[in-house]
Amino acid sequence: MKRFRKVYLEISNICNLKCSFCPGTRRTKQAMEEADFSILLEKLRPWTDFLYFHLMGEPLCHPQLHHFLELAAQAGFRVILTTNGIALPAHGERLCGAKGLHKVNISLHAYEANNLTIPLADYLDGCFRFGVQAQGKVIVSYRLWNQGGADAENQKIIEILHRYFPEPWVTEPRGIRIGQKVYLEHADKFEWPDLQASQKSQRVFCYGMRDHIGVLCDGTVVPCCLDHEGDIALGNLLHEELSDILETHRARAIFDGFRTGNAPEELCRRCGYATRFTKETP
């Protein structure tokens, strides 16, 4: 079994929206070049079977997205895309036939988190038509991760969703199954880690470094999917081997710290998402 269940490979940190729940990034805007992408694919092959094409950024905005999907499939990876859905009408048909595409997460809560001029019904039509078209081909997950936040439109969204995916809807561990391989997920809004935020807890457990890592679009390796600024830069996979990066003192300290429930990194102690894991043990 490969060490990591998934790796977040950020192909771009450029986004077409500015969601209120997302901290964005101050890093230089960058879309990964094919040469770098190919190097990273080769270096990640021994470590995982699943790649998420984001950490920050909107993957559907990358000009070589479909080519990258082909390269990833040829290398034996299964890819997960997380999108705000705005560009789905332009990409949906090709995505449905993309080899290696395992799942598409669609963040429906992005609509209310922006001042969009497009009507809600039009936005949802693009998102839901893709789900209908993709049924049985790839997993589609419609996310409403805004409970406790901007969620005034949720009921209307669900009412419209029923028109595209009539009942019965079946509750399952991964969410509500509304179609063949199509799901609806609810979750609470969470606070992203930030070095300027107040400390949440000294005691922290996280799955970062345990079931996943992140690789930013410049090759920087980070311990988790929420290190949006690369504050915990462990090394650069374009110039180093992952085995060496994971054996550095800093990387080992993070892994061992989570095992005992103590986070050595300031960023981890200021992560609102990690608080939900504090009672868990590896």
Characterize the structure shown.
- By secondary structure, this protein is α/β, with parallel strands linked by helices.
- The protein has a domain at 6-188: Aldolase class I (TIM Barrel, Alpha-Beta Barrel), CATH 3.20.20.70.
- The chain is 27% helix and 19% strand.
- The protein has helices at residues 34-44, 65-74, 88-96, 120-134, 154-164, 242-246, 249-260, 266-269, and strands at 6-9, 50-52, 78-83, 101-107, 139-147, 170-172, 175-179, 182-188, 212-215, 220-222, 235-236.
- Helix 3 runs parallel beside helix 4 (120-134).
- It is globular and about 55 Å long.
What secondary-structure arrangement, pairings included, does this model have?
Blueprint: E1 6-9, H1 34-44, E2 50-52, H2 65-74, E3 78-83, H3 88-96, E4 101-107, H4 120-134, E5 139-147, H5 154-164, E6 170-172, E7 175-179, E8 182-188, E9 212-215, E10 220-222, E11 235-236, H6 242-246, H7 249-260, H8 266-269
Parallel strand pairs: 1-2, 1-9, 2-3, 3-4, 4-5, 5-8
Antiparallel strand pairs: 6-7, 7-8, 9-10, 10-11
Helix pairs in contact: 3-4, 4-5
